Structure formats: structure tokens, C-alpha cells
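In this section we walk through a basic example: taking a raw amino acid sequence and producing a predicted 3D structure, encoded as C-alpha cells. The instruction is simple. Fold the sequence below.
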Amino acid sequence: MIPWLLGIAFLLSSSLAGIILIFLINGSLPIFEAYGWSFVTGREWFVGETYGALPMMYGTTVVTGIALGVALPLGLGTAVMTSEVVGRQTRHVLKSMMELMAGVPGIVYGLLGLVLVTTWIRDLFGLIDGNCVLTAGLLLGVMILPTVMTLSEDAIHAVPRLYRQQARALGFQAHEVILHAVLPQAIPGIVGAMLLGLTRAMGETIAVMLVIGSLDRLPAPLYNLFAPAQTIASKIGREGAEAIGVGLHWNALVALGLILFVMVMTLTWSAEQLGWKGRLHRI
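The resulting C-alpha cell sequence is shown next.
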């Protein structure tokens, strides 16, 4: 019975992914026929004139990187503390708080970011406007923190107690037990937590739209985190409703969706490879 259910679930999920991919490819063909590879490398986006995806790809990559830089150390550190340091009751309270944070809608985070984070960034760095890449990255880091922390804690807590006992028997200190006995066993789960956090960050729309500034060109210089920008998701969210079915503008937005799809699938495949390497290393 269970193998049949698993087979049906696999067939349905594969079919859905295939339908989505066909829709994206079919909707993207006109823009690639008109612009070719220059659509991906183009640096400017002016509706009705020219379409270039590079600014949105840059925004997605940098904002996601900032978010991961915030969420991974905080989430992993909190996960280690929750699983290995605090007592059972405190662990339950901390996990409940994180799970509650994970359930907060993105629009609520976006409004808080618009009121608090943008103002803080503006005043801290003396900017004219706090809507920028750094603000979006910090906000996304807070948003994916519960996901990274909760799943990492589950992976660490699932490591058999035998590994801890054997490490202590060898004379390891508490921090050495965590570093050399526990974390290596939890690597696949931690990679999975990072992956889910990244995919949520890459696909987040409303919150990013409110705080990123929405500028369709590359910042100068590229490392300027205080410049407004766009992510792929925020671009589609901002222009999708008005562009639906309208010539190359719509095709360009669908092509952005295809690029995001490829980025997420590549990230998923990479994480799977890292997970398998972690399993082989333990063997």
C-alpha cells in the first residue's frame, strides 16, 4: 500500500513540476527569440524598449546572500544551544517561539521592515532613503531564521546519543563533542535547512517589494549595498498583474520566472550533492 502511495505522490509531483516548466519555457520563447542570450546579460529594463534580466539576477543573488549570512550563524548557533545546552523545558519554549515566528505572514514582516528596518538603516548610515539591498537582505535574514534554526535543531537533536557518549568517553570537552561528534552527523539536515531558507528567500515577494527600492539597473559600484534594486520575485510581483498577456513585457516576466526556477533547481541539486557527500563521509 505504502509503495503505491509513494509512487502516486512522486508521479503527481513530477507531473506538476513538468507542467510548470513547460509553461515557463513556452512563455519565455518569444523574448529569447527577440533578444537571445542578451536578455540574460542585459543591464537595462525599460518596458516597451529593452529587457535585461541581469539587474534582477544580481538583486536576487546579493539579497539572498545577505539573508543567509544573517540567518545561518544565528540559526545554527541557536540550534546548537537549544539542542545541546539548555534544558528540555527551555528547548520547548524556544522552539515554540521560532515556529510561531515562521508562521508570521510575509506582508507583516514587510510592514515591520518598512517602518523599523528602513528607518534604522537610514539613520545609522546617514542615507536619504533606507530602501536598499542591505535592508531587504537583513529583513529576509530575519524571515528565514526560524526555518534555518528549527530544521537545524531537529537535525542536531536527531543525532543518536551514542555519538555523544563515545566522544565523552574519549575525553572530549563539551564544545569538542558538539564540533567533532554531533555536527558532522547533522550536516545533511543542516544543508537541508539552509536550502529551504534560501529558496524561501529567493521566492519572497511582498516583503522585498516594500523595502528594496525597486530600481531596474545594476548599482554602481556593484558592492554598493545601499543602492535600491530589484529581485526576480519582486519584479514579477510588481509588474505581473499589469503585464499579463501584453506582448514581450509578459514574456520577459515569464522568462524571469524561468531563470528563478533554474536557480532554485540548481541550488536544490547542489544541496543534494552536499548531503550525499556528508553521508558518504560518515560512512
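Looking at the output, two observations stand out. Residues 247-282 form the longest helix (36 residues). The CA atoms of residues 236 and 253 lie 6 Å apart. In the next section we compare this with other chains.
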